[in-house]
Amino acid sequence: MKAKLIIISVLCLFTSPIAQAQNPDPIFKKHYIGSTLFMLGNLSKDPPDFYQMNYGFRFTPKDELSIEAITWSYKGPLGRPYGPDFDNESSNFPGKVRAYGAGLAYKRFIWKGVFGQVHSTALKQNYLDVNGDKIQSGFQLFCTLRAGYHFRLFKNRLFIAPSIAMTFWPVNTNLPASFQAEEDKWHSYFLGEPGLLFGINF
Q: Which helix (H) or strand (E) is 135 found in, with range?
């Protein structure tokens, strides 16, 4: 009987810290749904028709996987940098691109709310002429390296996560010749893209 008590006591001694390490945060929540506040751009005079929905799963307090569904439109090359060339109408496409896709992201919390994130989105792209008629379709692989800070709100029921990112698109296929001519003038990456994700934890 005494031997059994000793064994049980030793097991409790070793397993207690493990259990605490698995969930050290009493308000830790595994799931969330969210989107981005940049959808407010749809209220502007020239809306991008940008819509995004995210579902995330935190498999540890420091590690998170998420999937996103996204659609948006844009009128010119994504590689135009900040400055006089950014959104310059003279370098716009003769029409616009309408994109639909889904992506996967991995986020790692580095210190408190500071995080790094990498994600990749596969997009079907419809190339439209100035009248909005489809010319042809292509594929884009859109990748992001992101750093930001995760703010908990209302006892971790909600969150907001501002961030800054580098985006790049190593695959971008089947652009019409007139679109490709403008695309070739710029890099296939963009530095300093802002992000502002929000969500509901459950």
A: strand 134-149
